Amino acid sequence: MNLQNILNDIEKVDADVYERLDHVSRRHVFQSWMKKALAGVTPLAFSAVLNKAYAQNNVVVDVLNYALTLEFLEAEFYNRSLSSGIIPAAARAYYEQIAKHENAHVSLLQGALGSAAIRKPNFDFTAKGAFPTVFSDVQTNYALAQAFEDTGVRAYKGQAANLISAPAVLTVALQIHSVEARHAARIRFLRGQKGWITNSDASGLPAAIYAGEGSITQAGVNLTTLPGNINADRSSEAFDEILTKEQVLAIAGPFIA
After folding, report:
1. Do 90 and 151 share a domain, yes or no?
2. What CDD domains has UniProt attached to this entry (predicted)?
3. 197 touches 187 (CB < 8 A)
4. pLDDT at 13 over 60
């Protein structure tokens, strides 16, 4: 990672960023970060710089806290799943790697938000008794992993437009979004499913997670009317749809104690 290039890129998209950092010069920011990094502090110090630059943007803060809530949920789920002992050897390496990713996402978002970060909620992964065997039956566990990953992918996509005013933050959100999609594909594979969603097939999960995924219209065009005999299944598989914040919170709500 070339931090000097990152600082240059941020200044290109936000020329006043250093003015909002209490008139701290770019060289001072860079040197201060390097001193902390060499002392063993994680790169979250750099996230704190972004936090100070965008602290007054309430929309960005709200989106990041929304994302942090989902990342808290996913990280806690994988951490508990690994501790439960039910994940078989064939899947454990995947769970361990996904857990590392989710914990890294939590750390980054907390660092970016600083004092504005929400506290980690308490989670009930049985969803108030709906999934009592989540940490004793591996298939139930896989199903919830899919539910969280597929929801997360659509959730990040749904907030992209709200981050246009903060290009540096949008870039990071998109980087997390693509990794969440890779997680979803791997978990779906563990359940013997395709890596993509066909129509609004919920595969036994709450239908709300896949609401709208059967759309065959993109940019006002009905894909099944185009040359090439594109049927409805292929049309829906080729494009993912967003979930709104309200839809996501309704899905995640039962898992928050």
Report:
1. yes
2. Ferritin_like
3. no
4. no
- Name the maximum alpha-carbon separation found in the chain: 61
Burial environment of residue 207 by CB neighbours within 10 A (0 to 12, 13 to 18, 19 or more): exposed
> Burial, 77: exposed, middle or buried (Cβ in 10 Å; 0-12, 13-18, 19+)?
buried
Does the pLDDT value for residue 150 go beyond 80?
yes
pTM tops 0.90 = no
Interval 190-214 mean pLDDT:
87
Q: What is the mean pLDDT of the chain?
A: 82
**Computed over its alpha carbons, how large is the radius of gyration of the chain?**
20
Give me the count of residues in the chain: 257
Which of 217, 213, 188 lies closest to 201 in space, CA to CA?
Answer: 213
Instruction: In whole angstroms, give the CA distance from residue 136 to residue 132.
Output: 8
Residue 194 CB coordination number (10 Å)? 11
213: DSSP letter: T
Nearest Cα neighbor of 46 from 57, 35, 56 is 35
Name the token pair of 183. Answer: 């997680």
CA–CA separation, 36 and 46 (whole Å): 10
State whether 144 and 98 are in the same domain: yes
189 falls within a domain: yes
Domain identity same for 4 and 86: no
Is the pLDDT at 46 greater than 50, yes or no? no
- Output the pLDDT for position 42: 46
Shared domain for 93 and 157, answered yes or no, is yes
Q: Give Cβ neighbours of residue 184 (< 8 Å, ≥ 6 apart).
A: 146, 149, 150, 152, 153, 195
